[in-house]
Specification:
about 120 residues, mainly alpha, two-stranded parallel ribbon, about 10% strand, elongated
């Protein structure tokens, strides 16, 4: 965490004007880590963005942390969309792909793991 905080943008991206820091599973951060992330956020310069993810309810984060960011809820894909995604990437019978997509109930990671296991 300290390395991320200390690296508040001394270098620019050679691929575009924005530098984006991604922190996954923010719900696993302690209160102290959330406070450090707020300090990091306060020191960010223009052209820098912060993107955090959580699979849990955002109420597991402190109120101070919650109110500093915009929360966007993503819905899981429908079975047909998930099946189409799997079919584009793996050469498996469509009946198996549809069965796996239905069983995964929108969980893309689970569907991918199930299909990879089925393919051996």
């Amino acid at each position: 965490m300290r390395r991320a905080r200390d690296a508040t943008g001394a270098y620019a991206s050679m691929f575009g004007p924005w530098s984006i820091k991604v922190v996954n599973e923010l719900d696993r951060c302690s209160k102290d880590a959330q406070d450090m992330l707020l300090t990091y956020h306060d020191r960010m310069r223009p052209g820098h963005a912060f993107h955090g993810t959580t699979n849990l309810d955002v109420t597991s984060l402190t109120e101070r942390f919650q109110t500093r960011f915009q929360s966007v809820r993503l819905q899981p894909p429908e079975n047909g969309l998930l099946a189409a995604f799997l079919a584009r990437r793996w050469d498996a019978p469509i009946s198996i792909i549809r069965q796996i997509a239905e069983g995964a109930k929108g969980n893309v990671r689970a569907a991918m793991a199930d299909l990879e296991m089925w393919m051996g």
